[in-house]
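G., the chain you wanted modeled:
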Amino acid sequence: MFKHAMVLVMFSLATAGSAAADDGSRLLSIDHYVQAKSIAPAMNNADVLLYVREVALASSVLRAEKSQGVVLFVHGAGTPANVAFDAPYEDYSWMAYLARAGYDVFSVDMTGYGR
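Predicted structure as C-alpha cells:
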C-alpha cells in the first residue's frame, strides 16, 4: 500500500509542475479604466473614463522581464478597439499575436465608442 501511495504522490508532483509551467504561456485579457479630462468640444473639461484592454502572457504581467516594446492600438471611427484588434475568433487577434511575441499590448476606446 505504501508503494502505491508514493507513486500517487510522485505523479501529483509531476503534474502540478507541468501545470505551473503552462500557466506562464497563458494569455490574459485585463480590462482597465483610465480617468482623463475630455477636450472634445461637446464635453470640454469633463471627467471621462477611457476603456483600455491589455493582453499579456501570464508570465509577463508583473513586468519582471523586459519586453520587446509597447504597442498601443487606437481604433478608427465606428469600431471599438477590442473588436478591431482582439477579435475572439480563431487566431484573428493582433493583440494576442504581439503579446506572444513579447510586446506589452494595449488597445483604447475613444470616448463614445465601445465601452
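Residues 47 and 71 are 25 Å apart (CA to CA).

Shout if anything looks off.
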